[in-house]
Amino acid sequence: MDFEAIEDQDGVRCSWNVLPNTRIEATRSVVPVSALYTPLKERPEQPPIRYEPVMCKVPCRAVLNPYCQIDVRGKLWICPFCLQRNQFPPHYKDISAHNLPPELLPRFTTIEYELPRRSPIPPVFMFVVDTCLEEDELKALKDSLILSLSLLPPHALVGLITYGTMVQLHELGHQECPKAYVFRGAKDYNVKQIQEMLGIGSSVRNQAGAPAANAPQQAFGAERFVQPVEQCEFTLTGILEQLQRDPWPVAADRRALRSTGAAMAVAVGMMESAFPNAGGRIMLFCGGPATQGPGMVVGAELKEPMRSHHDIDKEADRHYRKAVKFYEALARRASAAGHAVDVFSGCLDQVGLAEMKSMVNWTGGSMVLTDSFVTAIFKQSFQRVLDKDEAGDLQMGFNATLEVQTTKELKVCGMIGPGVSAGKKSAMVSDTEIGVGGTTAWRLPAVTARTTVGVFFEVANQQSQALQPGSRGLVQFSTTYQHARGDYRMRVTTIARSWAEGASPDIPASFDQEAAAVLMARIAVFKAEAEEVGDVLRWLDRMLIRLCQKFGDYRRDDPASFRLGPSFSIYPQFMYHLRRSQFLQVFNSSPDETAFYRHCLFREDTTNSLTMIQPSLMSYGFEGAPAPVLLDSVSMKPDVILMLDTFFHILIWHGETIAEWRKAGYHEQPEYENLKLLLEAPVVDTQSLLVERMPVPRYIVCDQNGSQARFLVSKLNPSTSYSSTNQYGGGEAVLTDDVNVSTFLSALSGLAVKNAS
After folding, report:
1. Is 595 helix (H, G, I), strand (E, B) or coil?
2. pLDDT tens digits, residue range 667-684?
3. Residues of the chain with pLDDT under 50
4. Can you give the pLDDT at residue 215?
5. Residue 94 CA: distances (Å) to CA of 73, 534, 636
């Protein structure tokens, strides 16, 4: 089965592509029935269809699809989800066996409808800018913001909030004299206070002095603060160019007073008052931790250190829980209003991403972690958020809702991805929750062509007799979203998977080990947010042992006889690397870095997620073409160049001999042209990765035994460590006490055959 071809057509990767037909058999299969779904996967060969979808009666509301039974003569169709008969609408009167609409053709299992309704309000972008920065940082940030105005569509609405010790909401309607509303940074402002102070919100609609008829529709009095780019570009550029560092004096032994929480409260309050249920993004540019007011992360005195993982685990940090609660409340309000929050941090120290992560993860926003606003990583990542497609539209969808329908044999356990529950209850909701459960619909305030959600199901069928031979379980994903152009669209994907008896060989043959590894990683990392990491690792180990017992081929109590079929052969290896990864091993990562890594895992597709779990390693040498090699210490040889891609870092590593030749300048001599080509080859290959990826990865060039070679060594399987003999030949010894893959697999096979009942 070609899983990647199915993904290209439908944007779906399922853990099992043939389903166990009873609940007990599904439980024994260990990995839950689940799917990775990319709602807006690019499909240029199938443009959207410009009419309304045909839907089943209330309460089902499933969309007409190729798996429906149709009666051409009676102009009827039977919904495969609820089995109700529905009449075709009048404009389908010419339907026949040879003249079918696209949604009934087998190749249109995924179809996109361009709906006739449009959003009355164009996309809204609210910049929230930290001014407690060094002069060069502030200048670089201002330049990036001014450049971004040319990347936004001319009709898009834009607003500006700057903050330091105080929070300033800038009026963009006065070109002659810049004007701003100033809020105290130490105070928490609720929505009602913000509406009364600014004179915005639905209450101003019927008052005297309400906005003129030519003002943006439904802006509810906010047109002074938020205006179309084409109207306010000159004014906004002027305000940004004249932006000064926060004037509040900072003593040598103190941090700058930074009111990030109050600024975000003002931004969220203004946006939800003026633009409820309209597509929008609040973009926070943050150069340090919040040190006063709501959402405070650390005290102003430098003698108080930033919290570490240890402090959070032991509840030793007095600000953490209060800040998390504050930002989660903002995240709920933003997602309920359909607005995404992006956080761009430019600071060598932590800025409080661990506290603010819910604002990004629950709203589908982007999180970018950089050392400085001067770096290319920040500048390129920010521009990439505002990338346009070939038609000149922003490559993002706004205010999306993802709904899942299933046939009666399946129930929905939950979703793990960048969204929140839409609170839609139905008979399809399972009592077992995985991730965000208790619903069959989720809100995704922002989606891109890469946004991928993991949806988990439960087989509800109790006895196998109830299923007829050859029957299939159906799942329909429907995503309604606001396109950047302003029109609403609906992407519908319907997938069917066959049922099989528990002992059938079709079930293990249909296992997609790559998708399963990513889905299990999402569950493990979701658990790690609330549970002890040690408990999560033990849970992962138990799941792996049970899977090997169920699908391995072995004689009891004979570890040497243990074999896994080709569908499962590399799954244990993925689990080995997941156990060692920065998602679960937080040692040597700050809470902010851990929040950033986990954020990326929850939103990327199968290929990128696998690269995060088990990085790819390419070897370049004189003996042949570049080739992928084992992620193993035996691959580190003095006469090769290695390229490591961890998704977050792209590293080029020069072996000792190659590095000496390069330092001696041999590659600059004409007779050593081959060395010059060898040095250039990995650099050329990395460029395509740097161009495609968001956020932009950190680019590292290092030599064997150099300090930055640690990024490579930490990811390798230590098959040659100081405590083991090298059975393969070549390679550098890794100084670690970690077990290697071989030892891990030996222990796994021993436990699998020993515990077998």
Report:
1. helix
2. 999 999 999 999 999 999
3. 205-206, 208-217, 727-728, 757
4. 44
5. 10, 63, 67
> Which tokens go with 494?
């319907």
Instruction: Tell me the one-letter amino acid at 634.
Output: V
Beta bridge partners of 459: 410
Render 118-149 in DSSP notation, one character per residue: E-SS--EEEEEEE--S-HHHHHHHHHHHHHHH
Would you state the pLDDT for residue 214?
43
3-state secondary structure 640-691: CEEEEECCCEEEEEECHHHHHHHHCCHHHCHHHHHHHHHHHHHHHHHHHHHH
Report the alpha-carbon angle 201-484-436, nearest 5: 75
Residue 8: which residues within 8 A CB-CB, separation 6 or more?
none
CA distance to 9, 12, 27, 109, per residue, from 2 (Å): 11, 12, 25, 16
- Side-chain half-sphere exposure of 417, counting CA atoms within 13 A: 32
Q: How many CB atoms lie within 10 A of CB 509?
A: 14
Distances in Å between the Cα of 538 and the Cα atoms of 309, 435, 577, 584 are 20, 19, 15, 12
- Report residue 188 as tokens: 């928490």
Are the CB atoms for 461 and 482 separated by under 8 Å? Answer: no
**Which burial class, exposed, middle or buried, applies to 597 when counting CB atoms under 10 A from its CB (0-12, 13-18, 19+)?**
buried
Q: Which pLDDT score, from 0 to 100, does residue 725 have? A: 55
Residue 159 vs residues 125, 128, 229, 271, 336: alpha-carbon distances, Å: 6, 9, 9, 10, 20
3-class SS of residue 487: strand
Please identify which residue in the block is written with the tokens 């839609």: 424
User: At which residue do the structure tokens 């150099």 appear?
Assistant: 706
Determine the 3-state secondary structure of 485 from DSSP: coil
Burial of 747 per CB tally in 10 Å (0-12, 13-18, 19+): middle
First to last CA, the chain: 32
pLDDT of residue 281: 97
Task: Give phi and psi for 340, each to the nearest 5.
Answer: -95, 155
CB 294 within 8 A of CB 356: no
CA distance linking residue 11 with residue 22, whole number of Å: 27
Count CB-CB contacts under 10 A for residue 42: 12
Question: What is the rounded CA–CA span in Å between residue 564 and residue 550?
Answer: 10
Pairing between β-strand 487-500 and β-strand 553-555 as defined by DSSP bridges: unpaired
- Collect all residues with Cβ–Cβ distance below 8 Å to 265 and sequence separation of at least 6: 188, 189, 194, 294, 295, 330
* pLDDT digits 0-9 by tens, 174-188: 777 889 999 999 999
